[in-house]
C-alpha cells in the first residue's frame, strides 16, 4: 500500500507541506531575531559592563575606556547591535575573554557532546516512557498505575543535582558498578568510547524525561481509549492489542511529540547542572565556567545557540505533528 | 420482506434476546439499565428499538456485541446467529464482531480513526476475518466504498476521515459494517448527527443493502420518522423494559400502550406538502399577493435585516457565510429560520447582536441601525434581546447556582439603569422561575442537578430576565427528547402569548418550526431560498430546494412516509433529467 501511495501522492500535499515549512521558517527567523535583541540588551544591562567583569575591580577609568574602545563598546547601541549581528551571520561569535580562543570553535567542539547526552537521555526516556505510559493507561487506577504514578512524581519533583548525587551514592559508592565522573576527551569519538562513564549522566538527565513523558503518554492514551474510533475498531473484530498498536498508539503520540520539541531547551538547561555535577565537557559546563569567569562572549554565544536550538526543537515538533496527525495538515476538501 | 417466510428458511434468528438483564455497579449503588428484555430479529428483517434517552436501548444493543463496559453485569440469554454471546470468551467474540454481527454508530465525525486512511480502515475489517492479502483486502475495500455510494472510491480510499463529509464518513462506517457480509447489523442512531437530506440518502442506502443481502438490521433510534421509513417491526423501550412491540404500521398508527401513545403525540409532524411542481407553483403565485398586502399594513418590525452579508476570513481566504439575506420579524411574531448545517442560519441569527462580521446590507433593530451603532448603543440594544441556545448544559455556568445565572442579565444591564439589590433580584428570579413553571426553590440548585428540560427552562428564564422585545432561539430543543421538547415548545408558545415578544426561531427541524412559527425563512449555502407564511412555504413550497428538504423529512406515519419517500425519489430524478 505504501508504495502505491507514495507514487500517486498528490502534489497538493507536498505543496501544503512546503507552504507550512516556509511559514514556520519565517516565524523561526523572527523569533531568533527577537532573541538576539534581548540577549544583546541583557549584556548591556550588566552592572559595570563587561569591562569591569574582565579587568576586575582594580581597573582604572582609563583602562576601562581603552578596553571599551578596543571592543567597540563605546559605539551607539544600535551600531553595536548590528556589528554583533553582522559577525554572528559570518559565524563569528567573538573571542573568549578567558580562554583566548574563538567562541565559535569552542561551541563547535562542545555542542556535539551535549547533543549526544541530550539525545541519549531523551531517546532513552521515550523508549521507557511510551510503553510505560500506555501500560499505566491500560491498567488505570490499579496498583501498578498507582505505584508508577507515585514513582513518577518523586522523580519529577527531585532536582536533578540531588537525583545525580543519589545515583552516584547508589551506583558508585554503594554498588561500585559505575564511575561517578563523565567521559573525558576533546573529540566525540573519545566520548563514545567510554559508554560506562556515560550511564550516570544520561540517567540523571533522562529520568525526569521519563516522568514527564509517561504522564503525557498516560493521559493521552486514556483519552484516546475513550474515543469512538476505538469502539469502531473493536466492533470490526480487531483484538484489543492490535487496537492499541494500530490505532491508539499513533493518535496518543501527538501530545508527546509536541512536548518533545519544547523539551530540547529543557535538556540544555538541565545540562548545566548535570555536566557540572559529572564534569562532562559539554555546553553546560562551558556555560557554567563562563558565568564563573564573566566570559561574556562565551555566555552570549551559549545563549544564542540554546535559543536557536529551542526554535529548531519546536520546528521539528511541528513538522512531526504535521506528519503524525493528518488533521494538522488542514486542507479540508 | 415477509418475516414469516424468511423465518421458515432460517429457523435460527439472527439475534435473540431472552429476559436480558443488565446492571451497572456504581458508587451510588446498582443501576438497573435493562430489566428483562426479550425479542428476536430474523434475517432480512428490520427491527427498530425506539425510546428516549436512558431507556436502555443502546445498552441492549451493545450487549449483542459484548462491548459493554467492564462494570456491567448481565444475565439472561443473548444469541447472535445461534451463538451464545454472554458466556463467549473475548477471543470467540472477536471472531464474531465485524464478521457475524457488526455495528454502525451515531457519530460519523468521531467513529473513524483520524490518522488512518479510510480504505485501510475498511480493509482492516476484512483482514480481521478473511485470510486475504493486504492488497486484496484493499481492493475489496474500494469495492465496498463504491457499493455504499462513495464517489471516486479509489481516490477516497486514500483520504483521511477529515477530508470526507459527514454523510460520506457515515457511508464508510456502513462499509466497515458490511465488509464481511454479517448476519446482523446493529445501527445505533445511524442518522441522528446528519442533515435531513443526508439522512434520507443513508436510510435509502440501508434499505437497499438489507434487501439485497438479506441481512438482519437492528435499528436503534429516537426518531419516529426513521422508524416509519425503514423498519418492519418496532419495539418501544422505556426505563429498561419493552413496553410495546408490533409491526411498524400497527405501533405507529394504532399504539395500544399509553406510553407509546404519549411518545407519538409529542412528535411534531409536518403537514403533507403538494409535491406536484406545476400545481404548487400555480397556487404559490396566487398566494403571493396576500403576503405583500400583509407586509404593507404591519407596524414597524422589531428586526429588519436587508441584504445582509457576513464574511469570515480564514487563512487568507474569504468565506461568505451569509449572502445578501433578508429577514424581518414583526412584534409578537415567531419567525422560523430553517436550513441544514452550514446554511448560515445561526450566523444570520447572530448578526443583529453584533457578534459576527457583517460586511454588507443593513440591520435595523428596534428602529436603530445596528451597523452604525457605537459599542455602548449596541449594549443597550442587546439588553432588549433575549437569547437561548441549543445546549442547555453548556450555556449555563456549571459553578454558578441557576438563580445567579438567571439574575446575571439583571446585574449586567441593571433595572432602570440601577444595579438591583439582592432582594429585588431574588424576587425577580422567583417570578421568572414561576413563569417557566419551575418551583422557586430551584434557584439554589446547580445545573448538573437539573434535567435537560429543566435546564432549558432555566435558559428560557434567563433569556426573559430583562423582558426582551425580541427572543433569538438557536436550536433550543435539538438536544432534548421529544416529550421534553414538546413541553419546552408549549411553554415557549405560552410565554410568547403572555409577553408578546418577537421571536427568531432557528432550527434544522422543519416539523418543530411548523409547530411554532407564523412565518418561515429557508436558507441554503448562505442564501435565503424562500420566505413566507409557514403553512404556505411548508405545504406549497416554491423553491426546489425547499421541496427537496420537505420530502427528506421522514413522516412518523409509515403509510405517509412511503408516499413522501416516493416524492423524494421523483424530485431527485426530475432534478437529474
UniProtKB/TrEMBL annotation, chain A:
Protein name as catalogued: Oligopeptide ABC transporter permease
Domain ABC transmembrane type-1: 111-317
Organism: Paeniglutamicibacter gangotriensis Lz1y
GO biological process: transmembrane transport
Listed transmembrane segments: 25-46, 114-132, 153-178, 198-217, 256-278, 298-324
Keywords attached to this entry: Cell membrane, Membrane, Transmembrane, Transmembrane helix, Transport
GO cellular component entries: plasma membrane
Subcellular location as annotated: Cell membrane
Membrane topology: Multi-pass membrane protein
Encoding gene (name): appB_1
CDD domains in the cross-refs: TM_PBP2 (cd06261)
TrEMBL record, chain B:
Membrane topology: Peripheral membrane protein
GO BP: peptide transport
Main localization (coarse): membrane
Cellular component GO terms held in the UniProt record: plasma membrane
SUPFAM superfamilies assigned: P-loop containing nucleoside triphosphate hydrolases
Keyword vocabulary terms for this entry: ATP-binding, Cell membrane, Membrane, Nucleotide-binding, Transport
Pfam families noted in UniProt: ABC_tran, oligo_HPY
Ranges of residues in domain ABC transporter: 15-264, 305-550
The keyword Nucleotidyltransferase appears for this protein: no
Protein name: Peptide ABC transporter ATP-binding protein
Species this protein is from: Paeniglutamicibacter gangotriensis Lz1y
Gene encoding the protein: dppD
